[in-house]
Design brief:
The protein is α/β, with parallel strands linked by helices. It is built from eleven helices and 18 strands. It is about 30% helix and about 25% strand.
């Protein structure tokens, strides 16, 4: 019970290059997937967007949602798991090698379908298909560190069986951006930033999304990995969390793109075009909502969103509880505060 490719046990991992050289079938599948067309996911597809440090679980029988996926992965990895017992799909957007984020999805998928009548032994034998997308041969080697954490977890996990079916990551997911004026400035970049799965058809495809709603600016502020959607509930949930309001938030809103990219990104040369605006919106939320328990999580309650079957928008449940927040921020900000915060980040 660990990691297998073509039913062959994988006992160690060095790199995707070595792995795919040893398993040409997996290499062919991954290269073919890399060369497939990127599809845009629209509202009529009835989708859930999973952001960084978020997880989702989609059943094939879900009546509200057909598609679940994520994008904006540069050094991050997006992993899709298929539970071969329940046929459900799980997805997670992994952004760090310092914690075992994939294990959180595995545990959530097992727990989500556990009943009182099931024994612990039933759950020890869970089998998953694994699809990895994202990460590239970046200049800081950040992607490779995340890859090792993901792969080593599956190899060492003794209670679950993983079948690796797709590895569009690392060197396979890397292209070179050429600068015709100065060859020295050529640099690597990802080919694919996103992936989605259609729960009805089982199709896993390169994806970009028409929207990252709801409330992306709020969701970006959390620090823990959280489950934001599962088909049992049928609603998007942003669990209660807290954050320390950044003393330099107002200044971050005003600085130019280069400062944001060079201080807040692991891959400043290859971030999607909306990255800087997303970061500014996050800092704006800090300014307008310095105390999230007062304005964002009333009565210490999670935020729930339901899909409007007419507009196909995810709408906040009980919006009347929140009202309009016109918080007046009385803090004073200095350039010293800004530089100190930038160094911490």
């Amino acid at each position: 019970m660990v990691l297998k490719i073509n039913n062959e046990l994988i006992e160690d991992f060095s790199s995707f290059e070595d792995l795919l050289n040893n398993y040409p079938d997996l290499a062919e599948t991954s290269i073919n997937w890399k060369n497939s067309e990127i599809k845009t996911v629209y509202k009529h597809d009835r989708f859930v967007y999973i952001g960084q440090r978020e997880m989702g679980i989609l059943d094939t029988s879900d009546q509200n949602v057909n598609v679940i996926g994520s994008e904006d992965a540069t050094t991050c990895h997006i992993v899709i798991l298929k539970n071969l017992t329940t046929q459900s799909y799980g997805i997670i957007h992994i952004d760090s090698h310092r914690e075992n984020q994939l294990e959180k999805l595995v545990l959530a998928m097992v727990q989500n379908y556990k009943t009182d009548s099931e024994t612990s032994q039933n759950n020890l034998n869970t089998k998953f298909e694994v699809y990895i997308v994202g990460g590239y041969n970046d200049e800081k080697d950040t992607s490779r560190q995340i890859t090792r954490t993901v792969m080593n977890y599956m190899i060492s996990e003794q209670t679950k069986l993983f079948h690796l079916k797709l590895a569009c990551a690392g060197f396979i997911n890397t292209r070179t951006v050429e600068n015709l004026e100065n060859e020295i400035l050529n640099y690597p970049a990802p080919i694919h930033y996103g992936v989605a799965v259609n729960g009805k058809s089982g199709l896993i495809f390169p994806a970009k999304f028409i929207s990252h709603a709801p409330d992306k600016d709020i969701r970006m502020l959390k620090s823990n990995v959280v489950l934001v959607y599962n088909s049992k509930e049928g609603r998007i949930c942003v669990p209660v969390f807290d954050y320390d309001s950044c003393s330099s938030a107002k200044l971050w809103i005003q600085v130019n793109d280069d400062i944001i990219l060079n201080n807040l990104s692991t891959s400043p040369k290859v971030e999607p075009s909306h990255f800087c605006d997303d970061m500014r919106n996050m800092f704006k939320r800090m300014v307008t909502d310095p105390d999230p328990h007062e304005t964002l999580f009333k009565n210490n309650s999670d935020r729930y969103y339901s899909l409007n079957n007419e507009t196909l928008d995810w709408e906040l449940d009980n919006p009347e509880l929140y009202g309009s927040n016109h918080t007046k921020d009385k803090q004073q900000f200095s350039l010293t505060d800004f530089i100190r915060t930038a160094k911490k980040i």
